[in-house]
Amino acid sequence: MPRPTMIGGLVAAAAAGATLLAGCSGVAIPGLGNSTPAASVSANPQVKAACAAISKELSGASTDLQRAISVAATDPAKAQRIMAKRQKSLAKVAATLDNAPVRAQLEKLASSVQALVDSLGAVTQDPTKLGAVTSAASGLLQDVSSLQALCAS
Fold this sequence. Notes:
The structure is a single chain. The termini are far apart. This protein has helices spanning 3-28, 45-72, 76-96, 100-125, 130-152. It is built from five helices and no strands. The chain is mainly alpha-helical and 153 residues long. It has one domain (3-152).
């Protein structure tokens, strides 16, 4: 597969993740200063507090994913480094959470980001492994949606 096609596929897969992650930090997770409808914020005070505590981290993750997408075509290794740093940050924040369901979902999200990091590394070495990036991006989207649903429950 020619490199521009490979990178195009990578960017498309990651763009979907950035869109959902941005929605997660702005709609279902309180505390970002956005006007979040009351119905989309958890009725459970412990879940609400945990989701508010991670909102800044999720906003940063969305920004980093967008940055990674923007450099993926010209410097896929830099995109990988950006996401590797964010994965460590997500895992660190997850470890500080007292709310078990939110912590578990954030840990899943950190694992999905690690899978994306690993697949980015693989595809930079072998463009035929683009399917791994697509699969990792799909897992990331699923985990973002699950976190979003938890924080809205």
